[in-house]
Protein 1
Amino acid sequence: MFSTGISRFASKSSIASVRSLLLRGKATVAAGSLKARVSELIPEKQKELKEIKTKYGSKSLGETTVDMAIGGMRGIKGLLWDTSLLDSEEGIRFRGLSIPELKEKLPTVVEGGEPIPEALLWLLLTGELPTEAQSKSVSEDLNSRASVPDFVMDILDRCPRDLHPMSQLSLAINALQHESIFAKAYDQGINKALYWDPIYEDSMNLIAKLPLIASKIYSNVYRDGKIGSIDNSADYSQNFASLLGFGDNKGFVELLRLYLVIHSDHEGGNVSAHTTHLVGSALSDPYLSLAAGLNGLAGPLHGLANQEVLRWILSMNKTLNTENPSHDQILSYCKETLASGRVIPGYGHAVLRKTDPRYTAQREFALKHLKDDPLFATVSNLYDIVPKVLAEQGKVKNPWPNVDAHSGVLLRHYGLTEQGYYTVLFAVSRAFGVLSQLVWDRALGLPIERPKSLTMDSIKKMFE
Ligand code: CMX
């Protein structure tokens, strides 16, 4: 094993012991743990869902028009997703809490600092705010699971350096599927009432292993291929930052905490969330499901936009030969981008109709920690210019910035300058949200997903 800690399920024998408990119809729950709380909540939530089905099962959730079917299913209410809900005007709420509320209520490492992602994980999985001790227990649990088999690191070592970091991440997660407790338990005939248990184990193991894999990719592609080890007394973000080589950079560690919290979940319909949920609905295990979701995150209209934003800004500065482009220079660069049939990355959204509160949270961080950074000034100037340019086009439904418009400038400020890597950080965060929901998908027994498609002929026949 590529060992950086003692993983409860790292060895074949312990995987076998979990499996044997599961096969005897027993969940594997330690008292007082996050898993124990999830386990207690399952019967209540199953009952609640049953009541919703009985009371409202035949009610209409709205009309599906031909435009909606052709137009990327915008606005069709066709998914259950409990961990977060997106309002087009207000933005995201995680289990009912807005980003400012998360910042106020979740435990922090630094006094008055950024919330801890492990605490968010507790909230996403239970709907309850954790105490500091509970949040710490999640950090410890994740640290104890943080080990990656040598063969996965070997696969990464064999990748060409110019294979995109997101492709490498997907490859490594697919290879890690070798460790899936769910897949093995399913092979041996686990009862469906217990599916949630190995799905929980796989999800926590996967979240725990992601910083090691992500850092190995970073080091292989941009550094010397070596990475450090997990400090069992540190939190997830501190460990991740240390593995990346930024552990002594306290500003970066705080940024990472905020970053991992705000990118985690954005309700169920976005490409990465929906894909993870869809693939999981076929009872593909969390490794296969997350890898599929992250392949979607790697698209430039979704998560890859964060690399595109910084590339676009830097290429503007290079073309104009300045670090401080003027209002008029930015305006004409935006117009050129649109005239050449490209999008302005970081602006627009399929659901939001206002500035993304994830953008605002990052802007507040920048105002507090890097207000004199020249690239931050450009990001601020873009906010004054791009929405007007996009609105003038008359077709963009939301001209305001999204989460990706801001993240690159912050990472670059602290020295993480390699834009090709940015989506990997988004991916690590997104795992927290989509895997939390995946645990609930199986706990609630949600069925295989199978919407109806139509041909052009069949649409015409319906109305002509
Ligand atoms: N720049 C230029 N044109 C844009 C645009 C932008 N930032 N945003 C939307 N448009 C265009 C669309 O391409 C579309 O054009 P066509 O009718 O010619 O096809 C038109 O405006 C209408 O699009 P929309 O209904 O407003 O937006 P969609 O729901 O179709 O798409 C999104 C949403 C995010 C893909 C789009 O706004 C976009 O491409 N933005 C830039 C890429 C980006 O920042 N993506 C990250 C989103 C957040 C994330 O998932 O991480």
Protein 2
Amino acid sequence: MGQKSPRSNNKSEHIVKIPHSSGVRLVAGVVIINFVVYLLVGQMAGGYPAHWGKEAAVPSMLLILFSLLTVLPALIITRQRTYGLAVTEALRLSEKKYHDLFVNAPIGIFQRRLEGSYIDFNNVIMEQFQCRTPEDFVAHYSDVANRWVEPEELRQFNKLLLENGAVRDFNLKTQLCDGTIKWFSLYAILDSTKLYFNGFAVDITERKRAEEELNHYREHLESLVKDRTAELALAVTAAEAANQAKSEFLANMSHEMRTPLNAVVGMTTMLLRSDLDATQRRYAETVNYASDILLLQIDNLLDISRIEEGKLEIESSPFDLADTVAKIFDIFSFGAEQKGVTLELQLDPDLSLNLTGDPGRLSQIMVNLLGNAVKFTDQGFVRLHISAEAADEHHAVLRFAVTDSGIGIAPDKLAHIFEPFTQADSSTTRKYGGTGLGLAISKKLVHLMGGEIGVDSVVGTGSTFWFVLPLGKQPAEPLYGQVNRAGAPVPELLLTEGKHRGHLLLAEDDPVNQQVAVSYLERLGYSFDIVENGHEVLQALTERDYDLVLMDFMMSEMGGLEATAMIRDPLFQVRNRTVPIVALTARATVGDREYCLAAGMSDYLTKPLRLEALAATLAKWLPQAPPAVTIGAADDTGTSEQLSDDRELIELFCQEASGYIAALERCLTEDDAAGVEHHAHKLVGAARAIGARRVADLGAEMEQLGIRREMAEARQRQQQLASAFQSLVEILTLRAE
Ligand code: ADP
């Protein structure tokens, strides 16, 4: 333990007080003594002042000299004494000031040697450190290595002090004499002798406590934030997984729904092309209408997830607007007619019809709007009006307006009507059904195509849903034949039932889908073989030449992608590695197309398979029947026929067309106008396929008469038609010989 040299805390007075007047008294004393000496000397010399004479001169001089020798030193001593007293007093005052400061300062002050012992300290520091006596304090805090302060901290403190000559705000945690723990901030200045330092201690326990509390809160907050962030990250991951699962689910559902729908659409198409009486035709048309609407709903469901993922792509291809609109009206004419609602189309006369854009998406918007209009209108009309808002040589801005005389929409619902899953009210939903997706998707699509969409509506009077779209204009000539993409016109000839060149391989394991594809291929006149998985495809391609493979995407054992990869693989020995492969898939998600093409497939068809799309795709990849030749035969109108020289096709035509002629006869006898329309239509298709114009034209007239139910006129025409057909058969027979 170090030594204490206490001082000022019990301080006594050091300076003896000497009155200021003592010097004056000394001088006065000396002067009086001088006067007495003067009188004595005068007595000895004969008395003053009468006998003061020459004899007194010596004693007087001595006296004066004596006076000078005594009074002067007295004066000097007095002066010096007065000065010494003043200095002592100043020192005393300074000492007192320092002492007062030392004692009364609100902070602990101490002087301490570097080796650890204390020179001095004030009472405050004892109070601060809860020590009852100075000895207590000294006992606790003298030793550098004592247990009340961390030795390392003290070492650090001394190091700083020696290095810098001072230490500022050195925070130290220590145990007080009474055992409590407190924080102090130390300030220290090293004395010039470097033997001791003056120190100041400020109790900062409260500040530290507040800091600790703050730290605690901060840490708590940080851990809360961390927890929440982790929870959020988990939630985001879960949401992403859920979203992914939803997309997967939608894709799978779409597949699951499209597969049976494929059968419905395919079989209905076949049914409508067969011999049906009027009632059967109605039924089939109802099924057809319903499956078209169902397909639209599935597309909407798929599209909403694609839009959410930002994966929806807009195409740009040439299309014929009239053709697109006609196909859409085909869908709704039946539903509207059943409700007694008139379906009207108004195309402005100056409208360009040969456009470029995304006809599929455009159709989807129109189908959504027209579908709603028909759905929410119980009487009156639904009208589609298309006009040009602006146009130049290469561009046109078109306005599409679908107006109905239906139930209308309340003003407060109008603002939200384009949001997903929004329906005007629950009673409407109960009565009319719906998903609340159609308008949301239409809006997204219009925006993706750079357009605007809106609605005006009056409850009880009707609504007008409109959209404005910028589209491209095609060069003057429409590009028929080059345009075989979805929604684009397909040459009539391709749809015609008949015989086409090319031997195909159909790979499809689902029996229903297989049947649909088979019936379409038969209708289109292609010959083909059927296999049911990728292994069988490879086997077939090793054994014989095929002109094209129609390959299902998902098959058991080996799917379409895998099989394609092997066909294209140079190490694998198929007869024709470059054979065109067209994928058939029910998934119809954006990525699938890329997958197919990346895997080496040549093209892509979605299910439900459409006859038109299949025909167009096959036409694109397969060599067509050779061009028709002019045979110089003239019929009774004098028109040259451009008859095909494909013998198989001609043969097939002769068989089928005579069937149609016979069916027409029967329908005319039975007064069945719908039957007349149907069989005449069939005959027209077949006749056009071989280039028999005369029969095709007469057939078309007959079809119109059937539509207009002008049966008397039709009977007269039948004669003409039958004889034209007869002469055609003769020409064909002659040519064959
Ligand atoms: P859905 O028709 O499948 O419910 P939509 O998004 O197409 O979904 O339409 C949302 C809602 O807007 C409908 O439920 C209906 O309440 C209202 N609506 C849309 N079109 C019309 C219309 N032409 N007339 C009256 N209400 C309409």
